Amino acid sequence: MDHFTDMLEEAENIHDIFSLVKDAVRETLKESRAGVNLGLIELGNPAEGFLGAYYPVGSNIIVMNKTPIRRIIETNPDLMKPYLFSVLLHEYLHSLGYLKEGDTRKLTYMITRQMFGDDHIVTEISGNLNKFLPFLIYPGGFPQTENEITLIEDTEEISYIG
């Protein structure tokens, strides 16, 4: 557990966190998938809703919503790494074929508990994201402002967590 906690703390960018996600899945489920890309898009948030990321089934990309990332920077930057780990883990599990949302949430929580322990913030986020919504969404909503996905390696936005 301490190993993963230290590795998450030392992560310098989204790619480091995604590598740690893949390591956690390999260690717990003995599964992996190569060639998954990461992208960003400004999807906004509805007044009472949240979409952190999505995986288009059959694709090779996990698309992260910039809105909650920016909101975390504004409200509680210490949540960034745990948030990114939890969301990337959830979407990576979808890319491995775990498509039922409820099952994927349970599996995400099980993996984070195993890798970080019950009391780590990653496990808390994975277990009850609603508790963290004030740090993730704009009250009253925020409009979607982009229609094109930007691959993370093509942008400087990797520095979000730096």
Q: What percent of residues adopt helix (DSSP H or I)?
A: 40-55%
CATH class assignment:
Alpha Beta
How much is the radius of gyration in Å? Answer: 15 Å
For the secondary structure, the number of strands is 4
Apparent shape: globular
What is the overall pLDDT average? 93
Tally of DSSP helical segments: 7
Termini gap? 23 Å
- What is the beta-strand fraction? 5-15%
Main beta sheet: strand number and arrangement?
Answer: 4 strands, mixed
Describe the model.
Helix 4 (80-95) packs across helix 6 (121-127). The two termini are 23 Å apart. With 162 residues, the chain is an alpha+beta fold. The chain has one domain: Zincin-like (2-Layer Sandwich), CATH 3.30.2010. The model has no long low-confidence stretch (mean pLDDT 93). The radius of gyration is 15 Å and the shape is globular. The longest helix is centred in the first third of the chain and has 16 residues, at 14-29. Helix content is 48%, strand content 9%. It has a four-stranded mixed beta sheet.
Layout of secondary structure:
Elements: H1 2-10, H2 14-29, E1 37-41, E2 53-54, E3 61-65, H3 66-75, H4 80-95, H5 101-116, H6 121-127, H7 133-136, E4 150-151
Parallel strand pairs: 1-3
Antiparallel strand pairs: 1-4, 2-3
Helix pairs in contact: 2-4, 4-5, 4-6, 5-6
Give a short overview.
With 162 residues, the chain is an alpha+beta fold. It contains seven helices and four strands. Helices cover 48% and strands 9% of the residues.
